[in-house]
Amino acid sequence: MSRVIVLHAPPPGHSSPEWERSLLQRLPYARRLELESRDRQARRASLGGTALLFEAAGRLGFGDVRSDELHFPEGAKPSVTGGPYFSISHTAHCVACAASRECDVGLDHEDFAGDEPPVRLRRWTAVEATLKAAGAGLRRAGAVEVDGDLRFSRLDDTEYHLAPLDLGPRVVACLAVSSRPDAIEIQCLGGVYL
Q1: How many alpha carbons lie under 13 Å from residue 171 in its C-beta half-sphere?
Q2: Per the confidence metrics, is the pTM higher than 0.90?
Q3: In what order do the strands lie in the sheet with 105-111?
């Protein structure tokens, strides 16, 4: 059975310095330096995604993730030694993390104004989720094939299953998974993870 969990929350707006310091200490040194050089809002959003990853890892039975198990290679997909597979996405209104024990995942979401997201934005989230699942950069966006129903995508010789996600109002989201999941669990944590 393959299971994907998706945790999401509003981005940490007024996180305490202790919360930031505690999360930064759980990261590899190079990642810490990179995040410390970002503006405060971007750093908080990235740390919020990391907090969701730690929560997802625990829920999937991996326990606490140590800093030496986290890898953030430049130009490549982040990973955790021994799992879980994960993907983090954040915007001004939402931070999210998809994780699975069994299959590679990619998650993208975008904020939009109005009542319905434009079709092109739905398609773009499918493309970017596929790129994230494959560990490919944005330069490969033109190589992603997405079917008209946004149910499948392909990059090179690998097919991905796509699933639109409901992460709240004015957010369009898509999950790309390397094998069809038996279950996708979505949970909004609110500010609980801070």
Answers
A1: 21
A2: yes
A3: 105-111, 171-177, 158-165, 152-155, 145-146
